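Cast an eye over this sequence plus tokens and explain the fold to me:
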Amino acid sequence: MPAPKELDPTASPAAHFGADLRKYRYAAKWTQEQLAERIGYSKSRIGNVERGDENPTRELIELCEEALGLNGPLLSHWPAISGNRMPDWFRQWPPIERKADQLLTWAPLIVPGLVQTVEYARAIFEGEPHTTPQQVEDAVEARMERQSIFDRPNPPQFLAVIDEGVLYRPIGDEFVTHRQLEHLITLAENKWFTVQLLPYAARCTAVLVGPALLAQQNGVPIAAYVESAVHGRVVDSTSEIKRLVDRLELIRSAALPEYLSVQRIKERVQRGVE
């Protein structure tokens, strides 16, 4: 039997995790196959994770912790691993998002990532050119992990202003968009979430920009995230944030109030996804 591949924990967050997983597995005197059987994964998956060839999911990490009788050393790798699933230009944003007590977004093309369903997010990432199935799943899981900020006892307030055209843009098969719209209706029952639609009839040239997400703390904007067709960037310049805030306020003032927005989403769901 060939000797196990020597691991370099400094190569990446995934490699660091893999080296630790192997260390604790050796301490338990288990083979990869024995660990795989205990957590319900394949031996090849465990091998890929230990070598750092594959990012582990949070579920896999938690199952390994439980099986090996650990209390945190493997899960402590998760922040670095989940950040590693994101593009370089986006990694600066999630820590800002987690600090905010209020988030305001303008979504002209698709439902905002923070309130997407798993199926909707997967359909979007599958449409990206040159992505592998594993990259798609990594991106989906990272997006779902971002949504955990709303599981806190005091979640941030989230206001999403969405262009009405988003309701009519099919993403994935005919059921994916339908379920996504139902999800928005359900979320709107929470005090932390407000959705407003910008109707087709709105005469607001301020909307002629890409998606934007503004983070605030104690009523003060602290940073923003804006996207282009190629990549996104974090904005922390006071003057740029001021211009963005002014634009977002114009967009919001032209949007329907929440109760009419939810009513229009419900009407769209009742008519079915065309």
